[in-house]
Amino acid sequence: MTASSESRAPARVLTLPNAITFVRLLCVPLFVWLLFGRTNGRYQAAWLLGALGTTDWVDGFLARRLGQVSELGKILDPTADRIMLGVAVVSILIDGSVPLWLGILVVVREVLVAGAALVLAAAGARRIDVQWAGKAGTFGLMLAFPLFLVAHSTAGWKDVAAVLAWVCAIPGICFGWYAAVTYVPMARRALAEGRADRPSKMAVTQP
Hints:
This protein is mostly helical. The chain is 81% helix and 0% strand. Helix 2 (16-37) packs antiparallel against helix 3, helix 2 (16-37) packs parallel to helix 5 (71-95) and helix 7 (132-151) runs antiparallel to helix 8.
């Protein structure tokens, strides 16, 4: 592989992992329709949201397995997770199937992290890789919220679902906020390193 092809590889867009991420994003409106557009649609919406949450690892696994890791994928995957979780939380809050305080904690955390990422990018910080705690928190919550829906449906196992929802929600919210707190020193380092690299990049690009 030549140097020029290596430099182009991270910029690839049409890869299988990115396609899976796009499909997962396209399922978000379907989830909203199932929840609000169908009579007794909580159970169907819960299954779709649960599938989206449990397959969150698939695109990242395939990217590494197939050698299709791309800069777009590194940005798109966590962005898709944040969109899906945000839409799910707000929708389920409107539906009334999740406690208000839990939904607010999740929404506030997602808004803070997303806002910080935009500010850092605008300030020239280097990109920060997704932390394991953040992924674990998102995974736990993407399991918890479907279970909250099942707990408020007519399913025969709704009482079991209510217990399982809290088993997933408490670690999920703890991991999520832990990742948000540890994000602060990482953001400072990323900003300092991004600004330090800027003069060297400008020197390289100048004729």
